[in-house]
Amino acid sequence: MEIKTSVSDIPLQNPPGEEFSAADLTWTKFATSEDHADDVALIPYGRVEAFISGECNNPEFPTRFHIERGRKRERGSLKEYKSDDFLLYRMYWCSFGPENYGEGGSPLPSRRYRLNTRNRAARPQSMRGCTCHFTVKRLYARPSVALIIYHERQHVNKSGFVCHGPLDRDAIGPGAKKLPYVCSEIQQQTLSLMYLGIPEENVLQTHIEGIQRYCGLDERVDLLASQYVQKLGMIIKRSTHELDLDDLASIRMWVERNKKSVFFYQDSTESDPFILGIQTEWQLQQMIRFGHQSLLACDSSFGISKLKYPLYTLLVFDSRNHALPVAWIITRSIAKHDVIKWMKALVDRVQASDASWRAGSFIIDDPASELDPIRELFACPMLFSLWRIRRSWLKNILKRCVNREVQCEIFRRLGEVMHSIWSEKADPMAIFEEMFQDFVDQTVFLQYFKSFWVPKIGMWLESIKCLPLSSQESCGAIEGYHLKLKLKTYNDSSLNSLQRVDWLVHKLTTELHSSFWLDLYSDESGSFPEVKEGYVNSTSWSRALNIPDSSVIFEHDIAKVLSQKDDGTSYHTIWNPGSEFSICDCKWALQGNLCKHVIKVNMVFQEKMEASSSLSYQSFQRVIDEILKKPVDNSVSLDLAMAWVAQVQEKVVRMTEFATSSDVATVADGLLMKWGSKKGRSFFGKPSDGAIFLPSMGNAQRGGGSKKKNRKRRRITRLTGV
Q1: How far apart (Å, rounded) are the C-alpha atoms in residues 303 and 99?
Q2: What are the coiled-coil residue ranges (predicted)?
């Protein structure tokens, strides 16, 4: 950016509206021979109060500015003067700074604005160490013009942390001024690398590189960074999940130490079951970011048979449609009144941070789940995921049936049961009876199926029939999260640790949390290419997209996919192609997982063959058919239904274009431009086009009356609607 050396070269700006802020101005770099370059802007002197008012009403950092120091000159007192010499000089400082007092240097509670006191000695409770300040100069050469010099625009303390307002999560004390600037991003990056077992030398190098982006090359900074990493490594090595020999006492101590990461806790008593809800600050941010007007999903089946208390995970889908955990709930109770307790606490916490947050839909994976709490608290449609039942059926077929042809035929028959749910002619239970007769020799599998699935199969089929089904991509993402959780949790566990809740909590909040944080950070920042590559290809759907269509060959009733890892001559065979109930002979599929070869074959099969629609699309068609049955012909209800369908159709088309297009700008060019204006603090809509504010006009000249009367009149008009 070009640096100006004369105020005469800086344009005068006069944004419209009753008030404006720094975001409404174009800032110029200005420097003299004595000073370093600062961001400056020229505005009419009569609009200085409008600028200060706009800065005070920043929604992210609401505050007040006080005059830290000021000087003034008399006109004619200077015979020679420069372009930036002042007639009146005032330095405005955010009233949350610069001092920060407290007993023992502990952080003080944040306030949205400082107390209305004239005596600065009575302000210690609002002194948060904020460094935001600017200078206003009424120019000596041009008294009608004010030069604004913004020295620090960020509302942060000397350590770079947000220190007041809604974004203040963890304001630190005055001792941080002795340390180099280590933002929360660098801290979490260093912590994640160490929890994932990266050598300390590599972590130190990455940590120093991050700090040098803010502090530059400095031996003292490098020494303090080295001490920081060494101390952090010692803390991690010495940390243990057993804070007490008694598991429940250990959990109580952990909850007391980590209140910011706990949104609900209920100790086990004779009348109440144990419930622990965990959500870190980062998970809360991702839930607001990716969950607003989008999909939420759950994984409710982890650790049912192995852990002391099963783990319920709430998931969102990130920018790559990968499942990201945003809350962990540890409990064995699925009773409605217990689910309402922790679910309400979670929704209240999210909406306390963002009152406009709303979920778009909720995907469940268990028909025994309580639906009423989701309907009441999230107030969104619900979908049903088949990944859990598909995985269970496939694993047990492969385990209890030896012959491959028998395995494929049984799995195909089970797929027919699912496809027959929406058919008026077919009877799912009749298909089961026919399957039992045809495979009467498979006694091991039939005994398992009749004892485990037959008693509850009616509940599953009813849920699948009543709720729309989620897609294969979302099923693969949920399964990918479940398998990663299983791998990270059980890799170094013992039977004793599995029966302790504090061990599970420690595992989730350290290694698991660090792994997901680093995955998302590496993808969005471009750092750690190896981590990013693994994250991008972490689901079967994303891996299937890397397989070219030419690698898929169809032969009679099977399909073959050219292996991408071997020498390029071996193939994987897929039986029952074109169905969610296909079986592949690759190692990943033979463990019961949804593999990339099955997904790729289904993609190609839908394009080249006359295949039946997927289960999720069939359920979608059923929903549309139900909508079309409701209105009475030639009625107003038909008009309303048509309007809603047209609106939904437009949204679906736009979402599909954004999801499939490689150039988002091309899609955006086709959208209608919506014009809007920034709302003032005390009026609605845009100001009238005929209102022209001259630089030298005061409030009385501009409005024709006092400001307080105008505000009162506007409030009365707003209430009466006149």
Answers
A1: 50
A2: none
Question: Can you spell out the DSSP letters for 29-70?
Answer: EE--SSS--EEEEEEEGGGHHHHHHHHHT-SSS---EEEEEE
Token digits of residue 55: 């800065």
Helices 281-291, 336-353: crossing angle, 10 deg rounding = 90
Q: How far apart are CA 151 and CA 92, in angstroms?
A: 10
Walk across the sheet containing 275-278 and list its strands.
262-266, 275-278, 323-331, 311-317, 295-302, 361-364, 382-384
> Are 157 and 183 in contact, with CB atoms under 8 Å apart?
no
List the beta strands (DSSP E) in 240-339.
262-266, 275-278, 295-302, 311-317, 323-331
Lowest average pLDDT, out of 21-30, 660-669, 676-685, 701-710, goes to 676-685
Overall pTM surpassing 0.85 (yes/no)? no
- Contact (CB, 8 A) for 523 and 529: no
pLDDT of residue 443: 92
- Return the structure tokens found at 422: 């929406």
Helix (H) or strand (E) holding 485: helix 472-490
Strand partners, 572: 561
The proportion of the chain whose per-residue pLDDT surpasses 90, expressed as a percent, equals 29
Give the tens place of pLDDT for each residue, 267-281: 988 889 999 999 998
Token pair 């920060």 in the structure block, residue: 100
**Strand pairing category for 275-278 and 28-30:** unpaired
Task: Give me the pLDDT at residue 93, please.
Answer: 87
For the cut 60, the answer to whether the pLDDT of residue 74 exceeds it is yes
Tell me the pLDDT tens digit for each residue of 129-154: 788 899 999 998 888 999 999 988 88
**What does the buried/exposed string (b/e) look like for 273-298 if buried means 16 or more CB atoms within 10 Å of the residue's CB?**
ebbbbbbbebbbebbbbbbeeebbbb
pLDDT of residue 614: 81
- For residues 22-41, average pLDDT: 81
pLDDT at 157: 78
The CA distances from residue 373 to 78, 334, 339, 362, 478, in Å, are 74, 11, 7, 12, 22
The answer to whether residues 90 and 136 touch, using CB atoms and an 8 Å cutoff, is: yes
Lowest-confidence segment of 71-85, 546-560, 678-692, 695-709 by average pLDDT: 678-692
Per-residue CA distances from 235 to 227, 229, 243, 249, 626 (Å): 12, 10, 14, 22, 59
Task: Give the three-state DSSP class for 138.
Answer: strand
The 8-class DSSP code of residue 243 comes to: S
Number of residues that this document lists for the chain:
722
Q: Is 162 helix (H, G, I), strand (E, B) or coil?
A: strand
Per-residue pLDDT tens digits for 453-469: 999 998 998 888 888 89
Contact 488, 512 (CB under 8 A): yes
Helix, strand counts (H, E) of the chain: 25, 18
Helical spans, DSSP H, in 401-427: 404-419
- What values do phi and psi take at 195, rounded to 5? -65, -30
